Amino acid sequence: MRGRAWLGAALVLGAQLRALWLAAAVEVHTAKEVVAVNGTNQRLKCTFSSSSPVSQQLSVSWNFQPEDLSAHEPVFYYLKEPYKPPSGRFKERVTWDGNIERNDVSIIIWNLQPSDNGTFTCQVTNWPDVYGTIGEVRLRVVQKVTFSEIHFLAVAIGSASVLMIIVVTAVIICRQHRRKARDKRLEVADTE
Predict the structure, then answer these.
(1) What is the pLDDT at residue 183?
(2) Mean pLDDT along residues 169-179
(3) DSSP state of 115
(4) What is the dihedral of CA 8, 10, 12, 17, to 10 degrees?
(5) Which of 10, 65, 126, 164 has its CA 20 to 30 A from that of 42?
(6) CB 49 within 8 A of CB 30
(7) What CATH number is associated with residue 55?
(8) How does 105-137 read in b/e, with b if 16+ C-beta sit within 10 Å?
């Protein structure tokens, strides 16, 4: 009976360890949305964390889903070294900008066009962590830079500061003018 209890405990422990092993997966981190100006270059940042040390079998896949939801397109692949796409819209327009030792698998897209609007996915596998999250970055290519909330806030604070300086200057000038007028009246009263 004792042997069966030990065997049952070992099976339960084995199942729990297997569940923990499957839970240990690669986590991928990206910005949710990036806005870039037409004709510029943009770094799409992607970092990862893994419960296992970085292995020689680490691979990175970047893919693109256009806004019109047409077929996914490969953008970039990494396995021991970076591989640029041999064809497609990103041929000669994408460069590796990552550092595997720092868990960074970022890329740069060159000469952005409005047709590059869509969602880029970054997937990392690091044996034995072959499962995990897929990072997504929604890229919006705009014709010109629009005022962000920070720019608007800076303009509002700057304008308010200038207005306050003008008001304080006007108050000081009015007081000096009144003081001179009062001094003149006192002078005239003294001479009479």
Answers:
(1) 83
(2) 90
(3) G
(4) -170
(5) 126
(6) no
(7) 2.60.40.10
(8) bbbebeebeeebbbbbbbbbbbeebeebeebbb
Residue 98 neighbours by CB under 8 Å, 6+ apart:
46, 60, 78, 104, 105, 106, 107
pLDDT of the residue at 124: 93
Residue type, 16: Q
Of residues 83 and 188, more confidently modeled: 83
Residue 35 counted as domain residue: yes
Residue 152 backbone dihedrals phi, psi, to 5 degrees = -60, -45
Structural element, H or E, at residue 172: helix 149-191
Q: Are strands 42-44 and 107-109 parallel, antiparallel or unpaired?
A: antiparallel
Whether residue 6 lies inside any domain: the answer is: no
Closest to 98 (Cα-Cα) out of 46, 34, 62:
46
Sequence letter at residue 152: F
Name which of 42, 71, 61, 83 is nearest 136 in CA terms. 61
Bond before 128 cis per omega within 30 degrees: yes
27 with 55, same domain: the answer is: yes
